[in-house]
Amino acid sequence: MTSPLGKDLLGLEHLSAEQISLILDTAVPLKAISERTIKKVPTLRGATIVNLFFEASTRTRISFEFAEKRMSADTVNVASAGSSIQKGETLVDTARNLEAMKIDMVVVRHGSSGAARFLAERIESNVINAGDGTHEHPTQGLLDLLTLRDRWGSLAGRRVCICGDVLHSRVARSNIWGLQKLGAEVAVCGPRSLLPRAIAEMGVIVFDRIEAAIEWADALNVLRLQLERMLGGYIPSLREYNRVFGVTSERLGRAPRDILILHPGPMNRGVEIDSDVADGPHSVILDQVTNGVAVRMAVLYLLAGNSPQLAEAAKGGA
Amino acid sequence: MTVRDVVLAGGRVVDPSTGVDAVGDVLLRDGKVEAVGGTLGRPDGAEVIDCAGLVVAPGFIDVHCHLREPGREDVETIATGARAAAAGGITAVCAMPNTDTVTDNQAAVGFVLKQGRAAEASRVYPIGAISIGQNGERLAEFGEMVGAGAVAVSDDGRPVVSSQLMRTALEYARAFNIPVADHCEDPTLSAGGAMNEGIVSARLGLRGIPCEAEEIMAIRDILLAKLTGGHVHLCHMSTKGSVELIRWGKDRGIRVTAEACPHHLSLTEDSVEGYNTNAKMNPPLRTAVDVEAVRDAVRDGTIDVLATDHAPHHHDEKQSAFADAPNGIVGLETALAVNITWLVKTGVLSVGTLIDRMSCAPAKLFSLPGGTLARGALADVTVFDPGKEWVVDPAAFRTKGRSTPYAGMTLTGRTACTIVGGRVVFRAS
Amino acid sequence: MAPSRSIVLNARALERTLARMADEIVERNDGTDGLVLIGIQRRGVQVADRIAAVIADREGVTVPRGALDITFYRDDLQTIGPRPVVGRTDISFAIDGKNIIVVDDVLFTGRTVRAALNELADFGRAAHIGLAVVIDRGGRELPIQPDIVGKHIEAPATSRVDVFISELDGRDEVVLDEGVGE
Description:
The complex is a heterotrimer of chains A (318), B (429) and C (182).
Chain A (H helix, E strand, L loop, with lengths): L16 H17 L14 E6 L5 H12 L3 E6 L11 H10 L4 E6 L4 H6 L5 E7 L5 H15 L6 E5 L6 H12 L3 E5 L15 E3 L2 H7 L2 E4 L4 H5 L6 H8 L3 H5 L6 E3 L12 H4 L6 H19 L4 H10 L1
Helix pairs in contact in A: 1-5, 1-12, 2-12, 5-6, 5-12
Chain B lengths: L5 E10 L4 E10 L2 E5 L10 E4 L4 E4 L1 E6 L12 H10 L2 E6 L10 H14 L3 E6 L13 H7 L3 E3 L8 H11 L6 E3 L4 H4 L4 E2 L2 H6 L3 E2 L1 H18 L3 E3 L5 H12 L4 E5 L1 H5 L21 H13 L4 E2 L8 H4 L16 H10 L6 H15 L15 E11 L18 E11 L2 E5 L2
Parallel strand pairs in B: 1-4, 1-5, 6-7, 7-8, 8-9, 9-10, 10-13, 11-12, 13-14, 14-15
Antiparallel strand pairs in B: 1-2, 2-3, 5-16, 16-17, 17-18
Helix pairs in contact in B: 1-2, 2-3, 4-7, 7-8, 8-10
Chain C lengths: L4 E5 L1 H19 L5 E6 L2 H17 L5 E4 L8 H4 L18 E9 L3 H11 L6 E9 L11 E5 L7 E5 L1 H4 L3 E5 L5
Parallel strand pairs in C: 2-3, 2-4, 4-5, 5-6
Antiparallel strand pairs in C: 1-8, 7-8
Helix pairs in contact in C: 1-2
């Protein structure tokens, strides 16, 4: 009755290559369900899932909600604005309250690194990390992996460069672990002020200039460059960022091979990525969105069966 | 009030201040050390404490702890802190001024002293603030505070950002012959940091605090001590670089002294793994290379004293996401055992050097009575069992704080008996 | 207890059985109009292919075939946990108004067929759905009965019946293994 992933999905760092592959393999048939007229399977009928978003998120929350509904789970959305979260309720109290409501899974987004794990250690329900601070965003990492695997068949030996604000990016960390586990070579590229100082110890190549990264890579995963980074003094201006580090069609045109372009969204067109690149033939950005629902369905499915509440109910009904 | 004579019988008396290291008795009378060594008599009515197999040392002095009163009596009071100190074999503590309100005037200093005396446990010496409200702007009244009983000044908890203020403090403190203790941290480099900057912080996605945030302020303070001739005392040194800078300063005769804390001598940033808020403190746990360097510095005297930086917090406050949890762990009741386990058992320090760093040296640096078992000295004595193994159980602590990274660990070395002014204030059951 | 394995059908017997099943399917449908075979992953898909080949041979008509993986329709997720998805659901035609024969290798509790019926319902409204199985081993837990049966046996609940198909297993054979527990 144990899930092949364990109780929770908190990050990709501690998953094995086999576990990651299992999620991707499971996502493939689930992707087909979204193509059907009736885009729904009864797999998680009766399961209750809370989407607990302490941070604003539209894309990830919607993607999870679609995934949950397509698996027939009952879902409740709790967003920080207007909830007790804003009234200073602690994470511990939130956890205890959720537990008391007999829910099966929690999808949590929180501004602090480690918050998902904190919750997971305190409640019996399955916890899925939908982004914790600048730590991990495992389902984003998984959908990126699936998108690349769809194109390449295998990631082994492929070169992927993560571009931009790696320092503040949970997407970057999940990508680094996931790509490395599946055998890809990983690089990062960006101003050093936006790279963790110990980044090389994570086994990645570091490019100071985007031109070098483009010459090396089979795919670029272009991170969102937030306006706050300029205000925080990490870079002089968004304008200069685009001029020096932006992924432009002119730069891509000099690439020695076809490069896939990924972006976790939302994009700052004209900053880290130019519109003609985002909408161009190299872009797999919309595939990422489609795959996002499928990998989240796969994660929900693979974590299920580890839920004490439902198991009890199932036994009673047998 | 007369106190019964106490005979500490048959222990290994170790007092680096007098060069004694021999099995023998110690007689305490009228709050003073009356006689040391050999087999002493058993005066009528004397309390005889069998110390066979135990070490008898001048009482430990912790020059750096946070007792939270006034302001956060829910977290610690001067009384609970003084009792925790006694249980840890520490006969005197210096209480940092970052309470609410700040100990930045003579009345506040008097309050700490009064509460300390009322506790009837270990001695409590107040440290006054460097700046009013610890705001880093105007000097507090050092003279009045020293007159009321302050033994040093510090804005600990916060760094002294302004070099000019630090310069003035060092100059002004000279008149009163007190050390200016600084929490070395460049706040612009450490802003938002939750742990050491390195591979662990990169992996966990936590904002890092580079070693340089400490080292930049350490060398600034050393240079200002050189400039002013004042005595700067650097709190809780945690990095290899800091140690090298202190060595540089001492080599040049600059009046710099420094302390290190048990956690920085025993644990690394790896303890944060799993977002363990009981391993969150400032300065943060560093790398094995740093731990090694700080240990060496304690051994060779570059680091003068071992302090605890005992900093209790409410359990609920520590029960939160890592970045949101407050800095600090409790230390009074584990310091001796951690130091023995990681420094003495490993051969870094002899028992004598340990006692020097925990007792003799702090007394000397902060001009405190104690730190010696010389005849006529204050009868502040720590008796401990250097081989006793015990499991750390925070629920059994005297301090109100429960946050410790050592919970559940088996440590070696435990207080057997703590005597303050000739009175037994703690005895192991 | 020594494991006791016995061959229920050998290769030639299996071939005859599948041929007869094909005839019965066509007979029951009164020809091949509107006839559709849908195999349940895994071996039901290969069995359906074999049956379709026989029909093509005898009737000169290739009946449409689909595949169902019922993993996401199981009712034992909470008690047994997630199982790997072994095959794809692939129904590339509209099933509305069709006469569907669901094909599987072994019929036991009936829960797989229940799941398959639910999944089929999500693809549309068939005119009629029938069930063809190579082996009916008894032991039903649901009110589900096959319309076409290759061979009926009474296998003990703890035994195992395996249909081996050369496309997947390198040989054609049906084996009853009574020495295997749950």
